[in-house]
Amino acid sequence: MSIVFRQLFDEHSSTLTYLLADALSGDAVLIDSVAEQAALYLGLLQELKLNLVYLLETHAHADHVTGAGLMKERTDALTATGRHTGTTCADVQLADGDTLVFGDELIRVIATPGHTPGCVSYRWRHCVFTGDALLIGGCGRTDFQGGDAGRLYDSITQRLFVLPNETLVYPAHDYKGRRVSSIGQEKLTNERVPGRSKQAFIELMDNLKLPPPRMIDEAVPANQRCGDQYAIIDIHAS
Amino acid sequence: MSIVFRQLFDEHSSTLTYLLADALSGDAVLIDSVAEQAALYLGLLQELKLNLVYLLETHAHADHVTGAGLMKERTDALTATGRHTGTTCADVQLADGDTLVFGDELIRVIATPGHTPGCVSYRWRHCVFTGDALLIGGCGRTDFQGGDAGRLYDSITQRLFVLPNETLVYPAHDYKGRRVSSIGQEKLTNERVPGRSKQAFIELMDNLKLPPPRMIDEAVPANQRCGDQYAIIDIHAS
C-alpha cells in the first residue's frame, strides 16, 4: 500500500491528529496538530522520511493551541484553514470544494459550518476528517465562537450524511476511547442528529448548558494567529 | 481509488457482509455472505461489473446459513474456510498465514480460534475482518461449537491486538448499529478483554449463561455443507 496513515492522540486535550502521506513521494499532511506534540510529529516525519507539505486545521480550536506555528518553523509546510475561520495568517484560505494535493493524493474541502462559522471537513479517499462538526456519537457544541445549531444540522445532514455509508469518520476529538466511526454508523447511532428535526436539534443544542472550555481564552486567539509561538508566549505571560 | 468496498447488513441475523474488489480487474471476494441476501449480492456484482473469485467464511456460523452455496451456483467463485471448521466441502482449506489473491489485491489469513476451533480472520490492506472472534466492544461467545475462552483470549491479544492501532476492525455482527472499530479503539474500549487476565476472561466467558442461538440446529449443519441449497431445503422440510 502506497499510503501512510497515523492517528495520534493528545491526552491533555483529547485531540485526535492525523498524519497522511503518499509513500511514493513522501509528501505528507497533518490535520489538527497540537503544539505540545510538535516534537512527536517531527520525529515521525524524520523516521518515516516524509516531507510535510500542509498543516491543515478543521477550525480555530478552543481547547488546544495548534502545532502549526511550531511545525511551520521546522518544515516547508503551508498552513491552511477554512476561509471563514478568521485566521488571515494562514497561507491558504480554503473554500468549499477546494482541493489540496500531496504527492498523488487528493483532499477535497467540505464546508461544514455550525460549531464555528469557519469549520471545514477534509475528505480523503474513503475517509472524512470532520473536526468538531461530527463527533463519534455526537457533535461539537454551538454556544460560542459564532456557533449556530441550525447551520451545524445542515452541515451534518446535507454535507456529511450524504457521503457513502462506508466512508470512515475521523473526528478531532473523542473522550471515551473511540477512534473511528463511519457515516453509516453515525446515521444509525449518533445521539444528537438521526430522528431529530432541525428545530428539535436547535432546541437540544441551545439547552446543553455546558461549562466553557478551559483553554478558550488562550487557544482561540493563539489559533487565530496560526499558533505563532510568540503569540502563545505573550498570552501565557499576560 | 482502484478498490471497491461495500459493507452490507442482514437485518434478520445482524450479519455484516463485506464485498471487496480490485476495480481494475473486477475480481471480487465476499466475506460472510448470508443465503437470504444472495439476490442482492448478484445484483451488486452485475451493477459494478465484478467477477466473484472467492466466497470466504470466517467460520461455520450458528446464526445464519451462508450464501456461499447459492452464490457458487451462479458464479465461478471458490469457497474458502479455515481448515479446522469441519467444512470439507469448501474448495480451499485455509491455514494461518495463507494468502488469497483477487486481482492485484492480497488477503492474509490469521487463525483466530476460540469462538470456534476453525475461526479465521482476514487481513486486507489496513482492515481486518474478524468474524466473531473480535466484535465491536466485545467478542464471540465460547460456550458451543468447540468454543474455548482461553484460545479466544490468545487470539485476540496475541494475533489481533498486535496489529497497528489504525487497523480497521470489521466484525461479522453488530447488534447496536455500530459498523467499524479499530485495533486501537478495541484495546481501549472492548468490554471483555483489556485489563482482564486470561483467567479472569475465561471465568467471565464461562459464566455468561446466554440462551442458545435460535438457528444453531439448522445453520451449523447447513454451513458445514457450505450452504448447499439442497441441504437447506432438506433441513427446512424436516
Automatic annotation (TrEMBL), chains A, B:
InterPro entries associated with the record: Metallo-B-lactamas, Mito_Persulfide_Diox, POD-like_MBL-fold, RibonucZ/Hydroxyglut_hydro
The keyword Transit peptide appears for this protein: yes
Top-level taxon: Bacteria
Swiss-Prot/TrEMBL keywords: Acetylation, Dioxygenase, Iron, Metal-binding, Oxidoreductase, Transit peptide
Named cofactor requirement(s): Fe(2+)
GO biological process, one term: glutathione metabolic process
Cited Pfam families: Lactamase_B (PF00753)
Gene3D superfamilies xrefs: Ribonuclease Z/Hydroxyacylglutathione hydrolase-like
Keyword Kinase in annotation: no
GO molecular-function terms, A-Z: metal ion binding; sulfur dioxygenase activity
All residue ranges annotated as the Metallo-beta-lactamase domain in the record: 14-173
Family from the record: Belongs to the metallo-beta-lactamase superfamily. Glyoxalase II family.
Name the UniProt record assigns to this protein: Metallo-beta-lactamase domain-containing protein
Organism field: Thauera terpenica 58Eu
